[in-house]
Amino acid sequence: MPTISHRPSHEMVGTLRFAHPTNSEIGATMQTDDIVSTIMQKWATAFTRLDSATLSSLYSKNAFFFGSNPILYRGNDGVKAYFDQLPRWAAPTVQFTEVSTALVAPELINVAGTATFLTEKGAAPLVVKITWGIVREDGDWKIVSHHVSPMTPLI
Length: 155
What we know:
single chain, 8-stranded mixed sheet, 3 helices, about 45% strand
């Protein structure tokens, strides 16, 4: 499993660990992982700045977004509204781990993993399960479905 580390100037560390699906075309799997890794790195960098415009630009115009509250946000404007309403933490970071990807169709990627958010120095981490659907839209790869849920079993 490849591990990719990303260290922006303020020392935020984002680690991506991929668990590959069964796929007879290793090249397609690696390309899929590269696409997901690029989006996750952009996402993590924008999150450290709480940059709602950049974060929302990573999403499809038809995105469905369930974040840390029960409201369904839709499209780029909805995603931007979600990030705009977050508290203005001093040092937010995110690490993506245990990432699995599957190329569902030539222009659709399924992603699942764990996201660990740190919002303030010394604060307890918020660890969630995360799933994304990523689709090719207007020549670029965009998140079309975003869902997080707690690690604590509900049943």
